[in-house]
């Protein structure tokens, strides 16, 4: 059993719990394609079996979020689940926010939250933060495609749609946006609406899944890969599946590889007119 379940993660539960539920039903090792904090909800692609080998591929894919930022407050975790450090700060107007959003688009340097899984001398940032250790993580370059202000939800909360590359911390955007506006801000809600080819419209809650219906929700691995396909002859496929390479007139690149009988096998790579099997995904 291989492929993906497009999970709609509930708020308040861990990504690991959702993966464990799928693993229990599939009776096969599973893994998620990019974690969501417990306070966040939305799209959490879970890979079953060999599909988990695509972790790095999906980690780099663009993601879309709908986030709510609460202005005038500061929390140690950069979201409202943490300890309040400051309250009663200034609340910016919509026009102020819109005037600076372009500064948060493109390749930007972003300092991850201290309460994160980033490693510092062999220890996780959140472990050091909980222990009261004073430290600051180095900035990293992230790619943000767009930041759109959606609605003013209350006196101090605004909602945003954010399209970004993997590794972006939405909590850090809230912090930095508040600072840019001469105040402070923290994230109060987060929903991931898309992760690569997976969208929230086609997602499923894990509590609706059973051993009997799981197969009907599995998305085939080949259906979520954007590579072109390659179909060698049976003789060529036999060589390739035995670790050999064959000549190929396809352009250099990665391809979805189908065996000589038309069944999907995994990924293959063409380099300098030489074709070789790269990763088994079936």
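Sequence proposed for the structure above (282 residues):
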């Amino acid at each position: 059993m291989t492929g993906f379940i497009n999970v709609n993660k509930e708020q308040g539960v861990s990504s690991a719990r959702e993966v464990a539920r799928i693993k229990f039903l599939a009776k096969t090792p599973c893994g998620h394609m990019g974690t969501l904090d417990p306070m966040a909800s939305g799209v959490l692609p879970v890979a079953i079996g060999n599909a988990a080998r695509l972790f790095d591929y999906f980690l780099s894919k663009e993601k879309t979020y709908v986030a709510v930022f609460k202005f005038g407050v500061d929390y140690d975790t950069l979201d409202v689940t943490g300890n309040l450090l400051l309250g009663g700060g200034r609340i910016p107007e919509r026009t102020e926010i819109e005037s600076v959003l372009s500064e948060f688009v493109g390749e930007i340097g972003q300092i991850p939250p201290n309460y994160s899984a980033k490693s510092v001398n062999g220890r996780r940032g959140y472990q050091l933060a909980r222990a009261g250790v004073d430290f600051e993580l180095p900035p990293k370059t992230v790619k943000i495609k767009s930041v759109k202000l959606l609605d003013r939800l209350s006196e101090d909360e605004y909602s945003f749609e954010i399209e970004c590359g993997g590794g972006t911390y939405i909590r850090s955007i809230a912090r930095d946006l508040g600072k840019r506006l001469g105040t402070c801000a923290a994230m109060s809600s987060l929903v991931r609406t898309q992760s690569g080819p997976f969208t929230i419209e086609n997602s499923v809650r894990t509590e609706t899944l059973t051993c009997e219906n799981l197969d009907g929700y599995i998305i085939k691995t080949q259906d979520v890969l954007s590579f072109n396909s390659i179909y060698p002859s049976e003789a060529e496929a036999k060589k390739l599946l035995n670790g050999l390479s064959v000549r190929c007139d396809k352009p250099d690149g990665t391809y979805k590889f189908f065996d000589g009988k038309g069944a999907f096998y995994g990924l293959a790579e063409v380099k300098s007119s030489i074709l070789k099997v790269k990763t088994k995904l079936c």
